Amino acid sequence: MDVQTGFGRPGMKCCAVWVAAALLLAPAAGLAQAWRPEKPVEIIIGTSPGGPQDRMGRLIQKILQEQKLAPTPVNVVNKPGGGGAVGLAYLSQRAGDGHYLMVNATTLFTNYITGKTPLAYTEFTPIAVMGIEY
Asked: For residue 45, is pLDDT > 90?
């Protein structure tokens, strides 16, 4: 079920309620019981500020901070370029480090298929589909 968020382009729908619920319930479900951030967390956005991915990343940042789900700072870092390829390259240099997350779009699949990046979706661990942008 999509919920109109009230921000972004007309007609853009996002599951913001599901994002909030998932982030709030994840600790209770024990998804990451043993891991707590020990250094600042970076939410990487592969686009310029202001777009749908950026707004989603900033919403996640806000929830993590307001609900005190991360005891360390949570920063949004924009790495625009190549349809998200620059952000993916940045993330791939930090493999296995849970302090780095990325909000991405279907370009996670299409950039590899079209040859824009040598990085395939199989080299990353998708966590959730939180919204769809038309």
From this structure: yes
Q: What one-character DSSP code corresponds to residue 41?
A: E
Rounded-to-integer distance, Cα 115 and Cα 52, Å: 24
Of 17, 72, 77, 20, which is closest to residue 53 (Cα–Cα)? 77
Question: What gap in Å lies between CA 25 and CA 114, rounded to an integer?
Answer: 37
Please state, in angstroms and rounded to a whole number, the distance separating the CA atoms of residues 14 and 17.
8
3-state secondary structure of 34: coil
Could you write out the DSSP letters of every residue in 55-107? Answer: HHHHHHHHHHHHTT--SS-EEEEE---GGGHHHHHHHHTTTT-TTEEEE--TH
Question: Does the pLDDT of residue 99 top 50, yes or no?
Answer: yes
